[in-house]
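thought: fold this chain, then report.
action: predict
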Amino acid sequence: MRRLETRVLKLRYILPIDFVALLADPTYNYINPNIKSPRPKEPVRTLLPRGVVSLSPDNLKQEITVQAKSGALDELVALLRLLDVKTKEVVMCLNIGDSQARVQVQNNKQARLSVRSEGKSYSLDVVPHIDSGGSVSFFVSIPIRDDLVVINWGSAKAGVQDQENELAVTFRQVAFGEPISFKWGSATVTLTATPVPV
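observation:
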């Protein structure tokens, strides 16, 4: 019978509680836990190595105390190296007239961009998703206001009015640096993203 070992593992990027959740359910979205992944009909295959007896995450110390058989502990350390990676980031730039707003944001995290141009305030929420192959997908939502109700998405296509939440929304995939352009009232709007080097 193998002896159990106890070891404290340090994490650098993801919260220990999120790492434990990922081990238990690989469909868990630790970037944005509010986004619900469709649940499979079959039981989810866990990533937790056999032989792990206990995991105690400590988010304040950014560590996990593990009790496991030595082989399972080695597997867990290997999984930690694969999963505890820095989240990719993008710099998004919103241009309306001569005004510009820039924000650096993590992949899959919502950011608000606001500018003032020609006496009017403009504000929109964007969630960027870095795709493979040098592209980014944007989910853009704009609160509908009486003085800015005419939105012509132009090349951004899939524009929708969400009356329940009083939002105009679109989803668009473009190459990094390529703008999404649309009309917002009489103003021309462009939104671009560039990756932040890791």
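thought: worth noting. Helices lie at 16-24, 70-83.
final: tokens above.
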